[in-house]
Amino acid sequence: MPAVGGIPTGPGKEYPGNLTPYVLVTCIVAAMGGLIFGYDIGISGGVTSMDPFLLKFFPSVYRSKHDDSSKNQYCQYNSETLTMFTSSLYLAALLSSLVASIVTRKLGRKPSMLLGGLLFFAGALLNGFAQAVWMLIVGRILLGFGIGFANQSVPLYLSETAPYKYRGALNIGFQLSITVGILVANVLNYFFAKIEGGWGWRLSLGGAIVPAIILTVGSLFLPDTPNSLIERGKKEDAKEKLKRIRGLENVDEEFNDLVMASELSKQVEHPWRNLLQRKYRPHMAVATLIPFFQQLTGINVIMFYAPVLFNTIGFGDNASLMSSVITGLVNVIATLVSIYGVDKWGRRFLFLEGGAQMLICQIIVAACIGAKFGIDGNPGELPNWYAIVVVLFICIYVAAFAWSWGPLGWLVPSEVFPLEIRSAAQSINVSVNMVFTFVVAQVFLNMLCHLKFGLFLFFAFFVLVMTIYIYYFLPETKNIPIEEMNQVWRSHWFWAKFMTEEFSNGNVEMLKGGQALKNV
């Protein structure tokens, strides 16, 4: 790795610990929180390409799609009401993530996951039985509240529970469950669209109760994290939990450092206000820029609207849904690559390789669509080879995202925050993610209508910018214990100047205090 973004690889603190069956099962169950997010991303694009759904709730879009097949294909789905149906969820997730920060800090990670599952269940039920647009949108808002709570608590839970040597792989279990949720939704859309009578969309939307039940029931059996228990004054319980998840009797060194970190965090009376302090600038850059860039890769354009997009570029309804299944399968397989490589190759390598691959694919897809559709959006007959080329490069693009910006966009922010600002900073991370997910979902169909094939070049520009940002400003965080992460910033060529003497001394004192406790 180039020196501009790396850190010295000298010895850091290494806490003993094993990847026990207990911690593995615990992390798998917690990661199921990603299913609700993924299922929703996959299902919403599918139902909005189903004719019976459009005819019942969005008749103007249905007429635009069928009345004149020779009109501009770029604009056939352009409807503010339709995009509000999709994007209202993410606005709700933004608002709920702010409340979820308080719940996660005061009551623990586990209750936040439980509440997320219950809210998502209620939203899925309302959508499945919807009779009017307002019921759809209220249901989507409830789904959004559930996602806000789950996305706030699950990444923190995984980062705090996993042994540091396996933290990357176990945390990416969250992204893997998102991709599995997307794939399952795409497969169900494909089969439900074939149901005679045109009510298959109800099964697609109502099916969200299944991942909601998995998260709700699973969270009832999960232990809370040692960090959270210490934060709430339950030190004896925390030590027992730490022994169990590490598979060791002697966890004094890690436990004492966690206690010291908690004591330091309690001296911070206003974590939200403290986020603005100079010493937290590196953390805030990660909390805001990574989720911002993650959404401007353009991935949600593909995942939200894949059936709509494929239908627009000449696939029939069933063919467009099957193409979404293919991209969903690629998404899952590529995420497994990330699980294998994140703690072996490092975060920076995956970010940089994935960025370069996405950039090339977006330019090629823009060229393909521009060559056949031009400016007027009327392509005439589309040959089979053309469709195959477009799907191929979209799949290569999805693979690049799935082993880089997809999982790392959640992993890296959740592992770099010190305990005293962790819940508040994670809330900022989720909020920024949801703001730009909402914005992209709300304006995509309108942008497709006006920018046409240039939309892919728009996203390609941001992929270039974010890859340059990673190269210069993101240090490597693999194999660094979560409570030792500040050494990464103090060793970085740019961020070191923000790490004040007070900050450094505080950590030194914490470590001295931990050592003193161990010797008592």
Brief sketch in words of this structure:
Helices cover about 75% and strands about 0% of the residues. By secondary structure, the chain is an all-alpha fold.
Q: What brief labels describe this structure?
A:
mainly alpha, disordered N terminus, single chain, globular, 0% strand
Question: Could you explain how this protein is built, in words?
Answer:
The protein is mostly helical and 520 residues long. It contains 24 helices and no strands. It has helices at residues 21-31, 33-47, 51-57, 59-66, 80-106, 109-128, 133-161, 167-192, 200-206, 209-221, 226-231, 235-246, 252-266, 271-274, 281-295, 299-312, 317-345, 347-373, 384-402, 405-416, 422-451, 454-473, 486-490, 501-519. The longest helix is centred in the last third of the chain and has 30 residues, at 422-451. The chain is globular, with a radius of gyration of 23 Å.
